[in-house]
Structures are given as C-alpha cells and as structure tokens.
C-alpha cells in the first residue's frame, strides 16, 4: 500500500535542515479548490502538510468539497512524499499545520518547543502488526530471537510496547534493522523469527509462510496515534482560522462517512489503491471526529487517551537511548481547540 510505505519512512532520529531545492522536490500541490477563497481577515493562507492516508480522509475531503471555503478561510494543503519531509517543513516554519505521527513530536519539540497536537485523527489497528512463526505464542518466547523492525520512533514504540508485556526490552532480542518491506521478505525467507510490519506486507507474508501468524496488532489500543500538529504561535495568533479548519475537516469526515461508496472511490484514487483495499483498510483503523477527540483522545479517564499513549512512548524512547531528554507528555497537547467546538 502506497501510503503505508510513505508513513513509515520517517527518520526522526536524525532531523536536520532541508535545503530549499530539496524541500521543493519533496512536495506537490493537492490542487485544492480552497486556495482561491478569500483569506480570513486578510491573513495568508493556512499552510498544511499531509500524506496520503485514510486516517486523514477528513482533511482531503474538506478540500475536495470546498468546506474550507464554506468556513471562510483559505487553506493550502500540500502533499508530501514522507513524514520526514513534513516534519522538516514544520521545523523550518514552512508549514503552519501538519499531519504527524504523535510519537514523532518528542523529536520535533526538542528543536521547536511550541509545536502542539490539536487533534487525533486515528489510531492504527490491524493495518500494523507483528508476525512470528506459530511456535512463538507470547512476547516471552521472543527472548534471544531475531526480530526485524524499522529504525524509527514509531517502530521502537510499537515493538517496545509489545515486548514489555512479556517483561522484555529490545536488549533481550536480536534486533535486525530493516524497512517494513525488507523485514517482511526476511521473515518470509525464514531469516528472522519475527517482524514488525504493515499491510500489504502482512497479508503477503501470511500467504507465503503457512507456519506464520499475526502475533500482535495495536487494534483496540492507543499505541500508534496519528495527529494534527500546529505551531503554538499559529494557534495563538490565528485561533479562529484554526478552529474553522478543524470544523471543516470534521465536516469532511462526517460527509465521507455518510457517503461511503463515493468516499471509498475518491480515496482509492487518492491513495492509488482499489476500492476493496480502501474498504478493508477502513475496517482496520479507528478514526476519530471532534466528538470522539473530546470523549476519547483528550479525556484522561478514557483508556485510549492520547496523553497516556505519549507517556508510555516517552519511556520506551528514553530507555532506547535514542532520545536523551523528553519533556512532559502533557506539554505536547493543546486540547482547548477541539474542546471548544
């Protein structure tokens, strides 16, 4: 799946500064109809970066259906080729808002402290998974075994959350650093005992290896959260525009859900997948609208709340020695916007 290859290519451990020519080659306009609307209060358009991903359907749908125009704001949404490109653009001040894997914010705020998560768009479910042979029944059985994963914050957290359920850390297994596709190939060839990967590689590996099974997925958990991140200055100075943006994408999500067949066809074109693949992917992830952000993501008493996800991720990242210092997870979140809607 094209999007999954993109979203997992993040390399947040080595964030640097992109040159202008490199940055320009990494993006393309979404040709959104909203860019010709009148800008709120004469301000510049809100500059938004995103990747093709079903969890960000509301952002894309709001563009297609001119919902930003209906809200009276001008938005320039730009499609990026990888999450690293979006992260770099946020750090360079080239974006006001970006679609970001929530755990990535620890690395970003080390350089730009005022970045805030203002909405959770989705929690990954069975699209991601850990595969093993059928002899491995629980995390403890992986001790000393070869375990393939990508060398990214997201994968460190995902694998770390699973291993700690068996009282293990990555130091107890033999980590083999491979991309999701390479890891799946190594698993299919019997070169590793387990792999953290995602569809379509999960489906393919299970077809090739008859002795394989999906040992774990983040279904029903808050381990992997995708979010919308904004600069604190933008939130402070353009609060009404940001609120209008959130209202528009919420309307986009609701419109897509109310017109599922049309939405599946439009998303299939956007993500370069079949309608059947979109329908399957839709059944595997948990998308959140504004109301669900209030009662789930930003609700401390809900088991799936974002702050608990970030706290758990921060401990794993610190223990991995890949990130030296991490601030309080609560400081990464500004829930005031969604709660006011």
CATH class of the largest domain: Alpha Beta
Number of strands: 12
Give the CATH superfamily of the largest domain: Periplasmic binding protein-like II
On the 0-100 scale, what is the average pLDDT? 86
- What's the architecture of the largest domain, going by CATH? 3-Layer(aba) Sandwich
Number of helices: 16
Structural class: alpha/beta
How many strands, which pairing sense, and closed or not: the largest β-sheet?
Answer: 7 strands, mixed
Side by side, the strands of the main sheet go 1-3-2-4-11-5-12
Q: Gyration radius, to the nearest Å?
A: 20 Å
Termini Cα gap = 34 Å
Helix content: 40-55%
CATH fold node name of the largest domain: D-Maltodextrin-Binding Protein, domain 2
Provide a compact summary of the structure:
With about 350 residues, the chain is an alpha/beta fold. The protein folds into two domains: about 1-125 and about 225-340, D-Maltodextrin-Binding Protein, domain 2 (3-Layer(aba) Sandwich); about 130-215, Periplasmic binding protein-like II (D-Maltodextrin-Binding Protein, domain 2, 3-Layer(aba) Sandwich), CATH 3.40.190.10. It contains 16 helices and twelve strands.
